[in-house]
Design a protein that fits this description.
Distance between the termini: 93 Å
Number of strands: 18
Structural class: alpha+beta
Number of helices: 14
Largest sheet: 6 strands, antiparallel
C-alpha cells in the first residue's frame, strides 16, 4: 500500500484515518502524519467551491455502492490540483459499517488538456461561425467545395444571386450542372470550370472571365479566381472560388471602345476640317487683302495724278474763277474722297488680319504644361517695359501660383490684359496695376486689377465679343478681350470681370492648377 502511486486512505466512521498512503505528500504537499493527526485537514484543502459537493458525496458513499467524483484541492503551496476520487464503504460480516476506503488520483494534466480542448473546440466553433457569416454576407461570390465530389459546402448570398439559384439548390449541385460559358461563347466542360480545376488538379485560377447562365437564361459576366484547400498532410480536401459581377464593367468597356473609335474618327475629321479651314483662311486672307492692296496703291497713284494736274493748271495761267474752282475740286473734294478710301481700306485690312488671328487661335494645337507663372508674367512685363515706363504706370506683381496650360496662349492672355490696363488708364491720375493670385481647390486664380477708366455695367458682357470696344480711343482692334476669353476657355478655365466706371477694373482668370486626371476613354 505504501508503494502505491495514488493517494489512498482508510477513513473510519468517526472521520479519523486508519491509514493514509505516503503518496499524499506528492499530490497535496501534506504528509500522511499531518492527515492522521488532523482528520479535518482533508476537507480544509478541498477547494471552497467544491466542498459541499464532496461532503454530499461522502454521505452517499457511506450508505451505498462505490462511487467516483472529480473535485479540486488547494495544495500546501497554494496551487490547485484536480482529483479523481473513487471510494467504497467497508463492512464486517454482520454488515456493520467499518469506514470508507478511497483512492485519489491527480488528474490535473488531463483536466487542463480537456480545458484546452474545450477552449479550442469553442474557438473552432466560433471561427467556423464567423467564417460562415463572413462568407454568407460577403459582397462578392464565394463558394467552398469539398473534394473530390466538388460539392458546395458554403456559398455567399451574393454567390447565389450570381448563379441565379437558392443555397439549397446549389448545395445539391454537382460540377456537371454548372453553366459556365467561355468568352468565345462555348459551354465549358466540367473540368474547365475554375472551382473544379482547383479541386481536381490543385490549380490556381487568377482573374479569368466567364459567363454564368441562370436557369431563366440570363447571362452574367463574371471575373473568377479559384484555388485548392490543403490539409496538414498536403492533401487537397476542397477548393474555394471567388467571383464577381463585371457585367456593368464589360458594358462600359464596350461603350468606351465605341467612344474611343468615335473620338478617333472625330479627331481625324477635325484635323481634316482644320486643314481645310486653314486653307480657306489663307485664301480668304489673300483674296480679301489683294484688292485692298490694289485700292491703297491706286489711291496713291490718283493722289500723284492730282498733284500733277494741279501743277499743270497753275502753269496754264487760267482765269481766276475757273482756276479757283478746279483747284478746290482737286485739293478739297477729291482729296477728302481719297482719304475716306484709304481709311476704309486700312480698316478693312485690320479687320481681315483680326479675323485671321482669331480663327487661328481656335485652331492652334494646345501643348499644356506646368507653367511657372512668376517667370511668365516677369517675361511679359519685361517685354512691355518701355510701354509701362512711357505711360508712367506703377506695376505691382505679387507671387503667383503655377498652373497647367499652353504657355504661348497664357502669355498672350496676360499681354492683352496688361496692354488694356495701360491703354485705358485714367489720364488725370497715376496709373496703378496690381497682379496677384491664389489657389481655390483645383484652380489657380489670377487677378489683374487696375485703376483705369473702368467699364460701364451695360458693356461688361459685351467687351468679350468680337469688335466690341471698351472705349473709342484709337489703336484697338476690338478683339483683345475676345481672344483672352477664347484662349482661357480652350485651356480649361474661365474669365470674369468686375468694374466700376471711373475707378478701375478687375479681371479674374481661372486655370487648372495641375494636370487634370485623365479620364478612361
Amino acid at each position: 500500500m505504501d508503494a502505491c502511486f495514488d493517494w489512498d486512505y482508510w477513513q473510519l466512521p468517526d472521520g479519523s484515518f486508519e491509514y493514509v498512503s505516503p503518496s499524499c505528500h506528492r499530490i497535496t504537499g501534506y504528509t500522511a502524519d499531518e492527515f492522521m493527526r488532523n482528520p479535518d485537514l482533508y476537507y480544509q484543502i478541498i477547494h471552497p467551491d467544491d466542498r459541499r459537493l464532496v461532503r454530499a458525496h461522502h454521505c452517499r458513499s457511506g450508505s451505498g455502492a462505490g462511487t467516483s467524483l472529480e473535485f479540486r484541492i488547494v495544495r500546501k503551496d497554494g496551487r490547485e490540483r484536480w482529483i479523481d476520487h473513487l471510494c467504497r464503504k467497508i463492512q464486517d460480516a454482520q454488515s456493520g459499517f467499518l469506514g470508507c476506503r478511497a483512492s485519489n488520483r491527480d488528474i490535473t494534466a488531463r483536466k487542463r488538456a480537456e480545458l484546452r480542448f474545450r477552449e479550442k473546440s469553442a474557438q473552432i466553433e466560433e471561427n467556423s461561425y464567423l467564417l460562415k457569416s463572413i462568407i454568407e454576407f460577403a459582397p462578392i461570390g464565394i463558394a467552398v467545395a469539398d473534394a473530390p465530389q466538388i460539392k458546395i459546402r458554403l456559398i455567399s448570398n451574393r454567390g447565389c444571386e450570381l448563379e441565379g439559384r437558392s443555397r439549397e439548390e446549389l448545395e445539391k449541385f454537382s460540377a456537371e450542372q454548372y453553366q459556365f460559358i467561355h468568352p468565345d461563347g462555348t459551354l465549358a466542360d466540367t473540368e474547365q470550370v475554375p472551382l473544379a480545376r482547383a479541386v481536381m488538379y490543385g490549380e490556381h485560377v487568377a482573374d479569368e472571365e466567364w459567363t454564368v447562365v441562370h436557369p431563366d437564361g440570363i447571362r452574367v459576366e463574371t471575373l473568377c479566381n479559384a484555388g485548392p484547400i490543403y490539409n496538414a498532410a498536403g492533401t487537397i480536401i476542397g477548393g474555394v472560388m471567388i467571383w464577381q459581377d463585371i457585367t456593368g464593367r464589360k458594358r462600359n468597356e464596350q461603350f468606351l471602345q465605341q467612344s474611343r473609335r468615335k473620338l478617333l474618327d472625330l479627331k481625324e475629321q477635325l484635323e481634316s476640317k482644320n486643314k481645310e479651314m486653314e486653307s480657306i483662311i489663307g485664301t480668304v486672307s489673300h483674296d480679301l487683302r489683294s484688292p485692298l492692296v490694289s485700292i491703297q496703291g491706286f489711291s496713291k497713284e490718283i493722289q500723284l495724278s492730282i498733284e500733277t494736274v494741279q501743277r499743270l493748271l497753275r502753269q496754264a495761267h487760267l482765269s481766276e474763277p475757273p482756276a479757283a474752282q478746279i483747284d478746290s475740286i482737286f485739293s478739297r473734294d477729291i482729296s477728302e474722297f481719297l482719304t475716306f478710301i484709304k481709311t476704309s481700306a486700312s480698316a478693312m485690312d485690320r479687320l481681315v488680319k483680326s479675323l485671321v488671328k482669331v480663327a487661328r487661335i481656335g485652331m492652334a494645337e494646345l501643348n499644356p504644361e506646368e507653367i511657372d507663372m512668376d517667370e511668365l508674367v516677369s517675361n511679359v512685363t519685361g517685354a512691355m517695359g518701355f510701354a509701362i515706363k512711357q505711360a508712367g504706370v506703377n506695376l505691382d506683381v505679387q507671387p503667383l501660383p503655377d498652373c497647367f496650360a499652353d504657355i504661348q496662349q497664357i502669355t498672350q492672355v496676360f499681354a492683352n490684359l496688361l496692354d488694356n490696363a495701360i491703354k485705358y488708364r485714367q489720364p488725370d491720375r497715376l496709373g496703378r496695376i496690381r497682379v496677384h493670385g491664389e489657389t481655390e481647390g483645383d484652380c489657380s486664380v489670377y487677378i489683374v486689377q487696375d485703376n483705369g477708366i473702368g467699364i460701364a455695367p451695360e458693356y461688361q458682357e459685351k467687351v468679350f465679343n468680337l469688335f466690341d470696344r471698351i472705349s473709342q480711343q484709337p489703336g484697338g482692334e476690338g478683339i483683345g478681350l475676345a481672344m483672352v476669353k477664347r484662349m482661357v476657355e480652350r485651356n480649361g478655365g474661365c474669365v470674369h470681370l468686375s468694374s466700376i466706371p471711373g475707378q478701375g477694373t478687375v479681371f479674374k482668370i481661372y486655370l487648372p492648377a495641375s494636370k487634370p486626371r485623365e479620364e478612361a476613354i
